[in-house]
Hints:
180 residues; alpha+beta; four-stranded antiparallel β-sheet; 2 helices; 43% strand
Amino acid sequence: MKVLKLTCCLLCISMMVACSSKTSKKTDPQPDSTATVEVAPQVFPVTVQTLNGYFLKNTYKLAEDTSCVLFADQASFDTAFGVAKTMNNKVDKPEFDKDVVAAVAMKATKTKTEIAISKAEKVGEMINVYVEVTTGDALTYTMQPLVVFSFPKEAGINSVNFMMGGEVVKSFPLNVPATN
């Protein structure tokens, strides 16, 4: 009788072990409390105003074939540009106290060339300015491709990036203090 009890006990134990190994315990994965979630910064459009009625002075030397420049004040602006006033055009005056004033210029060329700002956007603490250059036919004269523009100063912006072909071609620090 002892052998029968012992056999029954062993049989019960082996059945319990076999049953418990076949059922797996499913647990939901717990989120890692140390994981960081990166949130893409929001993108907001920035209004750009073209400033008409200016030409690049021939005393102002461009650093590269295509130069992107920010101007801090009227004096620095006046060293680079002259007023091209005619009877029919309007000369737009930059407002340095409320706007960031910038320009994109290229070296003189005998190919019809236009520079345009396709868009500008605020991404986090920076402004990205998208520049497009289109070229056309050969000319019999030399032209100076140029676009002068401004956009509103915005609190908390710390840099301006000029983008061409999806890449940053020039970046400038900008210190517009954040407001509380």
